[in-house]
Design brief:
The protein is built from ten helices and twelve strands. By secondary structure, the protein is an alpha/beta fold. The protein has two domains: 194 residues, Rossmann fold (3-Layer(aba) Sandwich); 103 residues, GMP Synthetase, Chain A, domain 3 (2-Layer Sandwich). Helix 2 crosses helix 7. 38% of the residues are buried. Bound molecules: xanthosine-5'-monophosphate. Pathway: Purine metabolism; GMP biosynthesis; GMP from XMP (L-Gln route): step 1/1.
Length: 325
Amino acid sequence: TWTTASVVEESVAAIREQVGSKRAICGLSGGVDSAVAAALVQKAIGDQLTCVYVDHGLMRKGESEQVEKDFVAATGVQLKVVEAEERFLSALAGVSDPEEKRKIIGREFIRVFEQAQAEIVAEAPGDQPVEFLVQGTLYPDVVESGGGTGTANIKSHHNVGGLPEDLEFQLVEPLRRLFKDEVRMVGKQLGLPDEIVQRQPFPGPGLGIRIVGEVTKERLDLLRDADAIAREELTAAGLDTEIWQCPVVLLADVRSVGVQGDGRTYGHPIVLRPVSSEDAMTADWTRMPYDVLARISTRITNEVADVNRVVLDVTSKPPGTIEWE
Ligand code: XMP
């Protein structure tokens, strides 16, 4: 019979058997899947595992700190943090095309990850070789990549943090038989905090694909502020489970006229995209309370400089995708 405890126990035994005395690395994205996979492998092989977190500067407010502090505190994992903001931003400079952005982010991620891997080997050269790569692949991912869902033709998804496909490693995929809700139960069993286990999905390319237009540091900071306000209000209103996720999008190349205080403004719109979904393959826009929308709108226009309008996306998927890019 299926119990979370027995799944953990069996996985730990299987990981020990597979990895033996060799070493493994795991990319952390801040998402649920890579966190739970890493915690399981850590439980099985301890310090033979090193986690790598690439801070590409496209994360939301507080996310890097969450990985660096909460995750390490909960698991005691060995963590290597790579600061790569400048590298990613200069690679993205001047680029507005969504697919091009996705490809650049995926490519840079793999390069940084390879570099980190080489450093780990160099730091402890006498040790056992690093032969294994831990990935948070779930059962639906396995089915999707075998069955082909067609979405791959729409957007090139980069599971940044868990998917350096062209690296030469043996894979450790302890979540291959689990669904998302089961992964959350395993994470809870392993003692991971709710802020990690109950997290809503967030795309690997991060805020880079939530700025329609060129990605710059200023725009990222602005979007981070708007996004933090929306998340705070949604959480305060108790909507985190009803809403599958709520991308907050900056229309960086659009300006509209507004009036604030005693003057004219000419600022950017922020789009709220709250969706309800079972599996992200299809989605409906969430009919969320007007008073919550009003609070988010008032706060974003008051608190975020250069934003003078907040609009609501009322498109289902299909025809709209969840993310704007
Ligand atoms: P779309 O926009 O295709 O998104 O309707 C479906 C789900 O996937 C997430 N998403 C991504 N996740 N890497 C990821 O790990 C990606 O490149 C990526 N692009 C979209 C999106 O947030 C939604 O949950």
